[in-house]
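Q: Hi! First time doing this. I have a protein sequence and I read that you can turn it into a structure. Is that right? Here it is:
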Amino acid sequence: MMPEKPKKTIKERIQEAKKTPKGMPGLVEELRKGISEHPPSKEEVREIIDDLKEKGLERHYKEIALEAGIEPTVQNIAALYAQERRKGGEQAPERKAGESQMLLEDKTSGLVRRFSETVRKIFEIEGAALGNSSEKQKELFQTFNDYADDIYEAVKGDGINTLDEEALFSSITGVFYSNFNASYATNQIISTSIEDNKFNCYSSSLLFAGVLAKFGKEMQVVTVPGHVFLLGEKYAYETTSKKMSSAYFPKSDLSERYPIAQVGGFDFLVACSYGWTGSLFKDNKDYDKAIESYKKVIELNPKYADAYNNMGLAYGSKKDYDKAIESYKKAIELNPKDAEIYNSMGIAYGSKKTTTKR
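A: Yes, that's right. Below is the predicted 3D structure, encoded as structure tokens:
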């Protein structure tokens, strides 16, 4: 019988993995093996986290901490980031004082109020579509604010220069992905995202915009077919991308990446809310309410091709083919490269022809 090999500690595995050509996947694999063989204490986990300096490994902290029995709170994440940045030589920004600081606080306060009104309106729209009571809407609204406050406090404690747009967004993204789940999905609105912790581009953009408002950053909203994201002074932020390398890109590259992008203010988030709820009504075969919702989208964002396309689908389901075709034509005018719209319009023409023959 061969003697049993001594089990390696997690720190030993980390050190060895750093020397191997496997890179990040190898390191994560070693971490999981180490945790299963030597369940670490809370103190040991803190030491382990302190040793994880490889870029991008932060997103694995939640899984590692959960396996080790430590709740991965936003405060823990913020402490980790702050520690790593200070080791890298970054210093917390100096606070502005006097009159300039008062003006900044007044501006931020007004921005937060305006954004809060937007969010409240969105919960009303979604609540009507979902059949939520006013009490339920208030509960979800409060939870949203709690989430935004928690992320804000965690990032603020990070010690980053909040005037550095790239660093600020990077920190918010790190805290968010360590506590919430997000993906590029089409079936989520902010109400359902809060309840099941599954965010998409729309609901995560709403939450990110709320956090950024607390830092005095008023973001613009970008809509393209099937997608929504945020635009700052220097960067565009795709909130459903975990990788920092693809989560943001220079604002100057927007037109090249998304030639038919529409840029607007908080009203575009309200428009997105009407769009998502319109799809809920359409899926439930309540086509009149769906069409009403899409018309409200168009009022707020007149060049949003998806709204015209979806409205065409709703009219087609009602067998109102003339209005369906009219909607598709407008959608094609705004988004001439979407083959699905042409296909839908062709179906509408065919259905109209068949109906006329009868």
